Amino acid sequence: MLFGAPGSGKGTTGKMLTKLTGWPHLATGDLLREQIARKTPLGLEMQSILASGQLAPDDLVSRMVWDRLGWPDCENGFLLDGFPRTIPQAEGLAEWFGGRQFRPVLIHLWVEYNEILRRLTGRRTCPVCGAIYHVESNPSKVPGVCENDGAELTVRADDREEVVMQRLQTYQRQTWPVAETLRKHGILVEAIDCGEMDPESVADRIVWRLDRISGSIAKKTKN
């Protein structure tokens, strides 16, 4: 389970880990869009709720995850990104693990809040092709202009400083207790300080940690 504040790099790290381990990277946002695109009963129910402006309830999100974890590609391991996000989801996941031969580990990608602010508020996006730049770490050749199509780069609404601060406060209030709930159920919580590491180094460090925990997690998938 990849765990961390907005801007901690869960999505990027998850994709890197999939390449290293072969495990599917299961991001709840992607799963939700997939269910809606396939027009499954669960997807239609989700779409109706989201269209009304409500958040997807815990039981529907959990049912979506349980459905995906039943696929054959999850038999030897998987990466959860964005789940669990609430205490009820964490309780349900701990119960799900209880009857199966997995050894779950929650990886907390720890990044200082000032660094998260720098990462998110400096991000710029092309509204045409979706390319992402950063004013400091990955600037476009011509400031404010996309290199692919010449479109003017924009700041996403949720990357504005006041919105980022609200997201971080919500994370601290609602999501952080999830880690403690899982710990109380005996699930191992490992912290990775990734504030100054590039995504490849973060992924390598996680695989190294998992190998030390199990001795077989990453080695088995590399063979």
How does this model look, in words?
- The chain has helices spanning 10-21, 28-38, 41-51, 58-69, 87-98, 113-121, 161-184, 199-214, 217-222, and strands at residues 2-3, 25-27, 79-81, 105-110, 123-125, 132-134, 188-193.
- The chain has a single domain, classed as P-loop containing nucleotide triphosphate hydrolases (Rossmann fold).
- Helix content is 51%, strand content 12%.
- The radius of gyration is 18 Å and the shape is globular.
- The protein is mostly helical and 223 residues long.
- Strands 1-4-7 form a 3-stranded parallel β-sheet.
* Main beta-sheet strand count, sense and barrel state: 3 strands, parallel
Taken as a percent bin, the fraction of beta residues is 5-15%
From the structure provided, what is the oligomeric state, counting identical versus distinct chains?
A: single chain
Order of helices and strands: EHEHHHEHEHEEHEHH
So, CATH architecture? Answer: 3-Layer(aba) Sandwich
List unreliable stretches of 5+ residues: 218-223
**CATH H level, superfamily name:** P-loop containing nucleotide triphosphate hydrolases
How much is the radius of gyration in Å?
18 Å
How many helices? The count is 9
CATH topology: Rossmann fold
The helix content, as a percent range, equals: 40-55%
What would the principal axes of the Cα set say about the shape? globular
CATH class: Alpha Beta
